[in-house]
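Blinded run. Sample ID left blank on purpose so nobody reads anything into the name before looking at the predicted structure. Input follows.
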Amino acid sequence: MFRLLLCVLFLVYTPYVRAQRISGTFTAIPNQEIRLEGINGFTNQTLATATTGPGGTFTLSYLPKDRGVAYLISSDKKPYFVILSGEDIELSGEAPGKRESINILKGRENQWFVQYSIESPLREQTLSAWSYLEKQYASAPERFPASALRDIRNEIKRIKDEDADFLKQMPSDSYVKWFLPVRKLVSSVSNLAQYRQDEIPSALATFRALDYTDPRLYKSGLYKEAIEGHFWLIENSGQSLDTVYQWMRISIDSLVADLRHDNQKLNEVTDHLFTLLEQHSLLQASEYLALKVLNETSCTLNNDLAKQLESYRAMKPGNSAPDIEFIGDLMAPGYPPDAFPETLSDITSPFTLLVFGAGWCPQCKEDLPAMASLYPKWKSNGVEVVFISLDEKKEDFFQFAANLPFLSACDYLKWESPVAKDYFIFGTPTMYLIDRERHILLRPSSVKQMDAWVDWFLVQGKLSK
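Blinded prediction complete.
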């Protein structure tokens, strides 16, 4: 009896979490699976699935914890964007991929979103045009009446006020009221860089003020875009490279300060941003990020990311590269068989490019042949190339390296190779350019960057051998 009473009390006093519904009719996809897919940071997850009825009717449910952005997806894989704001949503149309056919019958936040999505791009285009005219008129006041410039500025203000007024009408707790300005910020970076450079500092301040621990942002589908848009805008701001790096350091400081108490998001954001900066050859910024995060005593990094970042502390330009003992198999075209180098120190060229790769690495299959074609030019300008293979089988190594014109070595230990560990290799291809004394000069992020270094510093004589 007592146990029964406890069960009754539990049912009475336990808060009921009501799922919200997305329902409607997609007439073009009867008897087909339809999926609701939500977003968590950099990844998507399925929230619900259903099969449409004979007439295309469907009902899906989502929970309050799913609040954010999601996609309705059917067999054609073309998604329809929905805001999960805690309200029931009702749609009518042909299919998720045929957006122009869809009407939102219920769900005011989704109705606001669609209205804003139609009107805001028109305002942005008009605003860019007026901003361009404002600059032209302001730069030549002797050619235009003052009243014309005043009218232009009044029109710019009117457009901005119209946009702000649309957002003011929404309740303070509306997800769309928060979401739309962030989406507008992310989507505006190209226009800012091209037409409205004077607005870049305020846009960067807004990017830096974003809370990357906010669940609304994490589930918005804008997490990745906000990071990439933020740093793309700095890179394309038209500033000197020194200023670009200075602004990136400020932004990195802001990000790390925001994320230092959320290890999961810190790891995710750092990993993504570090890769992004490396791909764009913004190596000073990626090094700054690595050292900044490694020096954060309140942060816990996962092992792979810690190893990746630690390579910057141990292997940054200016440091000395470890010597390498060539054990295992060695192919060395151009060397007499009885004069194969036993160690890296035996190579006496002014510069040596160390390339860590493998036959199983897709990018290596593009990069190594490209290096082979450039090798005669590099060699004639004092750059030797050494390929350190992380292959595990003799036949794989010999097949991949057979036609390479430079020295290739493999000990078949893959990531357990002492050389890979000494050089903090966590991915392929990885390159280090060193001088005769084994000082690290550069960590090229691509064959193109390495070739540009040769052209600038050696062919054009900007650096003494």
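Unblinding after everyone has recorded impressions. The radius of gyration is 29 Å.
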